[in-house]
Amino acid sequence: MKDAASTHSNPGHSLANQPALSVRAETPMAFVRAIASAFALRGLDPLPALQAAQIAPDLLHQPDARITALQMEWLSASAMRELDDEALGWFSRRLPWGSYGMLVRASLTAPNLGVALARWCRHHNLLTEDIRLTLSTSDGLAHIELHEAHDLKDLREFCTVSVLRNALGVACWLTDSRIPLAATQLHFAPPPHADSYRVLFDGPCQFNAPHSRLSFDAGYLQLPLRRDEAALQRMLQRALLLTVRPYRRDRLLMEKVRQTLAEHPEHSRNADDLAAWLNLSARTLHRQLKEEGASLQQLKDAVRRDMATEWLMRTTRPIKQIAAEVGFQNEKSFMRAFKGWTGQTPDEFRSGP
Questions:
Q1: What is the pLDDT of residues 140-194, one digit of tens each?
Q2: Which residues contact 190 (CB under 8 A, 6 or more apart)?
Q3: With respect to CATH, is domain 298-351 assigned 1.10.10.60?
Q4: Where would I find the beta strands (DSSP E) of the chain?
Q5: What is the pLDDT at residue 292?
Q6: pLDDT range class, residue 293, cuts 50, 70, 90
Q7: What is the pLDDT of residues 299-312, one digit of tens each?
Q8: For the chain, what are the domain ranges?
Q9: In terms of Cα–Cα distance, which of 260, 249, 243, 326 is closest to 289?
Q10: What's the pLDDT score for residue 4?
Q11: Among the listed residues 166, 143, 189, the one whose alpha carbon sits nearest the alpha carbon of residue 86
Q12: I need a surface site. Which of 87, 92, 164, 169 has the fewest CB within 10 A?
């Protein structure tokens, strides 16, 4: 559940059906080389993981090359599974798949973000002795600090960036809030790709610091957590999103709309009702969805499709009842829409191959 990458990326797809990549490449090739070195240390070939992420192997030897956030997500996911190491080689012992999800789960019951982050750092320290994470406050700022137990050498940059971005991503996700950084301090010299740090961390960034840390307004520590186990299960399906892209409200809106449509249909009769539930104007709702490449009608159709296919597969409810449940006025219009979604009638879908 880790990674360091860039911004401005489209939602991901399965590795078996990847889209052409036309988004801006900002992630330094140094991080890709670090992952490749983790394979080498295990005597494994990184080529399949590189191919899964659509990264040409010869790019490893081009210092100025960059990849997109989506490619970094694909590469990290493949590498973590093949290496069975969510730390991607940073630490003296592996962190098996699921380690970082376990850390988040242990923090879900905290009364506020401050307690959750302190718990997250404490539990992370139980996973490895190579680094130590702490949460502290001073002068109105909260600090997530990373201290090395020994010199991480060539792994220092990738480890530091990944762990700190992971911690920040978890904090943002737990509170469903974008947490802007007041400052970032890093315990290494400016790398050749230092310009990427304007994307990796917002706010002022200082290199050659005594130790590495992220600082933000301490008021965020009082925010209540807004997630539960069900939300965690959904997040873990693409946990790397917490660190490959900055957490911003407009990046969350599609998921918020989708969740509201599924869980609170009484607030979803029209754009005005839905926007009011989300504390937005209808105009802002449509505009932000358009910026994300979606429309309210597309999201309504997606939720209806998912609900319909779930009930068709797992229940014996009559088609007419399912049509009404997902918001269609009659069975005929539902059947026509369902065939447009899936290429099959509801009866054909239910009966299977």
A1: 899 999 999 998 888 999 999 999 999 999 999 998 888 889 999 999 999 999 9
A2: 207, 208
A3: yes
A4: 27-28, 66-67, 131-138, 141-148, 183-185, 205-206, 212-217
A5: 61
A6: low
A7: 888 888 888 888 88
A8: 15-222, 248-294, 298-351
A9: 249
A10: 38
A11: 166
A12: 92
Identity of the amino acid at 52: A
Q: Which amino acid is at 13?
A: H
Query: Under a CB-based contact definition with an 8 Å cutoff, are residues 133 and 217 in contact?
Result: no
Sign, Cα dihedral of 282, 284, 287, 289: negative
pLDDT confidence tier of residue 353, bands split at 50, 70 and 90: low
Among residues 219, 215, 197, 221, the alpha carbon closest in space to that of 207 is found at 197
pTM for the model stands at 0.65
Distances (CA, A) of 181 to 106, 191, 274: 25, 21, 31
pLDDT of residue 244: 61
Which tokens hold the place of 348? Answer: 């054909």
Rounded to an integer, what distance in angstroms lies between the CA atom of residue 161 and that of residue 228? 27
Residue carrying structure tokens 């407009």: 250
SS3 (DSSP) at 55? coil
Weakest mean pLDDT among 88-97, 112-121, 202-211, 272-281: 272-281
Residue 222 gets which letter from DSSP? G
